[in-house]
Automatic annotation (TrEMBL):
SMART domains: PASTA, S_TKc. Residues 357-422 form the PASTA domain. Gene3D superfamilies: 3.30.10.20, Phosphorylase Kinase, domain 1, Transferase(Phosphotransferase) domain 1. Residues 10-266 form the Protein kinase domain. It comes from Amnibacterium kyonggiense. This is non-specific serine/threonine protein kinase. PANTHER family: MITOGEN-ACTIVATED PROTEIN KINASE KINASE KINASE 20-RELATED, SERINE_THREONINE-PROTEIN KINASE YBDM-RELATED. CDD domains: PASTA_pknB, STKc_PknB_like. Keywords: ATP-binding, Kinase, Nucleotide-binding, Serine/threonine-protein kinase, Transferase. PROSITE patterns: PASTA, PROTEIN_KINASE_DOM, PROTEIN_KINASE_ST. It is an enzyme of class 2 (transferase). GO terms for molecular function: ATP binding; protein serine/threonine kinase activity. It catalyses: L-seryl-[protein] + ATP = O-phospho-L-seryl-[protein] + ADP + H(+); L-threonyl-[protein] + ATP = O-phospho-L-threonyl-[protein] + ADP + H(+). One of its GO terms (biological process) is negative regulation of fatty acid biosynthetic process.
């Protein structure tokens, strides 16, 4: 591909990166005489007309999204069967590079990057675009300090069946429970991915690990993300609460979109900002974005209602310029010189003291009994509203969330309602007809069911193809059937034509 001229306009110069679904090249736009990044779909995906058409459609949607924190899409097309996307070229590193270089980040650094990511995502959600592949690899930190969100559209076009196992593993660490179990996504799925990135920035690790994608998927679907402070005691409670809110397993318990999460981030910054020493120097104070801005989707007033800081690309540039340059040279990161120099311990104590003046913060009571949670809320001066119930992996009657969520700033005497667990959500039987044993096992596991074994039976289908799921008696279990989570099922597997050996059974689904 290097040296090729696409559509008589884009001269491919060098390969920048290769992923499971596409390769990115540095190219020269000969018409406008500028450097661009060209993303070229892998040939085996470009041959799929449905995938290619969806890729092009999503590229057009992304091209209509103009925001300082989003990578600009300039063009898309096909040349001799090669589907490609042309984007602005940013010289710098990714958030993944930065985490690999420095491990975990400080709370201040995390909030700076998080703010820029959410600002770009706000514009996307307002435009009706769901990213669906948010991860550190798609957060770009330019050498000039700009922070931009990339890869809009491509993730929407991709499916797990078309991605390689390696690419899936790189992405599944940030997939929301509803994407894992039901394959559906909305703005709250993006919020979940941002929450996972937030956890990783604060701790230097992903919350869920596994050698196989299905192991990670199972944890997303069944386990709650732990508080970052359990891994890094230096994380303040305010950021714990924001992370846990964003990564709630039930979408109903998360911020409804990037706008809601960004608003809460501003409030968190406000609390931590006001808790810092009052005698900071001018260089330690946070800059404010000028009201005038270049091309963008949201007006300044719409992007953020009144809050103590509005750091978009303009002032993030200044704070990250030194950091991104030093990252290339394996030097020390210099965020501290331009960030608020405050005592997080003092800020946390002030926070738990009740907040500014006549406001109080809803505490996190997840995992407590109803009585203990009520006592904690009453102790903060809140009234207790009628409790709701929701499915959860927690024991029945245990608190899974509050409404409003933990971290919300309310006047004393405001009403807070508990959400109590009513036990595990019943599992819905997936369709496994025509799949391989490995793929069917993964689907069943992700649905929170257990493959107890396999039954081999002659059929017209190719040997090794799963025919359906059956129970212990051999009766068919139809897709969509509701079962208790953890119910054992068996795979009915074809042995090929009828002249094959007589049916056998096995307790090992992998055979």
């Amino acid at each position: 591909m290097v040296g090729r001229l696409l559509d008589g306009r884009y001269q491919i110069r060098a390969r920048i990166a290769r992923g499971g679904m596409a390769t990115v090249y540095l190219a020269t736009d000969l018409r406008l005489e500028r450097r661009v990044a060209v993303k070229v779909m892998h040939a085996h995906l470009a041959d799929d007309a449905a995938f290619r058409d969806r890729f092009i459609q999503e590229a057009r949607s992304a091209a209509r999204l103009a925001h300082p924190n989003v990578v600009n899409v300039f063009d898309q097309g096909q040349d001799l069967g090669t589907a490609y996307l042309v984007m602005e070229y940013l010289q710098g590193i990714t958030l993944r590079d930065l985490l690999g270089e420095y491990g975990r980040l400080t709370p201040e650094q995390t909030m700076d990057i998080l703010e820029a990511v959410l600002a770009g995502l706000v514009a996307a959600h307002k435009a009706g675009i769901i990213h669906r592949d948010l991860k550190p690899e798609n957060v770009l930190l330019a050498d000039d300090g700009r922070i931009k969100l990339g890869d809009f559209g491509l993730a929407r076009a991709a499916t797990s069946s078309t991605a390689s196992g390696q690419a899936l593993l790189g992405t599944i660490a940030y997939l929301s429970p509803e994407l894992v179990t039901r394959g559906i996504a909305d703005t709250r799925s993006d919020v979940y991915a941002v929450g996972i990135m937030m956890y990783e920035m604060l701790t230097g690790e992903q919350p869920f690990k596994g050698e196989q994608p299905v192991q990670i998927a199972y944890q997303h679907a069944n386990d709650s993300v732990p508080a970052p402070s359990l891994k890094n005691p230096g994380v303040p409670a305010l950021l714990d609460d924001l992370t846990l809110w964003a990564t709630a397993r039930d979408p109903e318990d998360r911020p409804r979109d990037a706008r809601a999460m960004l608003d809460q981030l501003f409030e968190t910054q406000h609390l931590m900002h006001d808790a810092a020493p009052a005698n900071r120097t001018a260089t330690q104070r946070t800059a404010v974005l000028p009201s005038a801005a270049s091309t963008r989707v949201l007006a300044t007033a719409d992007l953020a209602p009144s809050a103590p800081r509005r750091a978009q690309s303009a002032d993030v540039v200044d704070r990250l310029r030194a950091a991104t340059a030093r990252a290339h040279r394996r030097g020390a990161w210099a965020f501290a010189a331009v960030l608020v120099a405050g005592s997080l311990a003092a800020g946390t104590g002030w926070y738990y003291g009740g907040g500014p003046g006549s406001t109080a913060v809803v505490p996190s009571v997840t995992g407590k009994s109803q009585d203990a949670a009520n006592a904690a809320l009453i102790g903060r001066g809140f009234r207790i509203g009628p409790a709701d119930q929701a499915y959860s992996s927690r024991n029945e009657g245990v608190v899974t969330a509050t409404r409003p969520s933990a971290g919300a700033l309310l006047p004393p005497g405001a009403t807070v309602s508990l959400v109590l667990s009513k036990g595990e959500r019943p599992a819905s039987v997936p369709s496994v007809k025509g799949r391989t044993v490995a793929a069917a096992t993964a689907a069943v596991t992700a649905a929170r069911l257990v493959v107890a074994g396999r039954i081999d039976r002659a059929s017209t289908r190719a040997a090794g193809t799963v025919l359906r799921l059956v129970d212990d008696e051999g009766a068919t279990i139809a897709p969509g059937t509701t079962l208790d989570a953890g119910t054992a099922v068996h795979l009915l597997v074809s042995t090929g034509p009828a002249d094959a050996a007589a049916p056998t059974t096995s307790t090992d689904p992998a055979q």
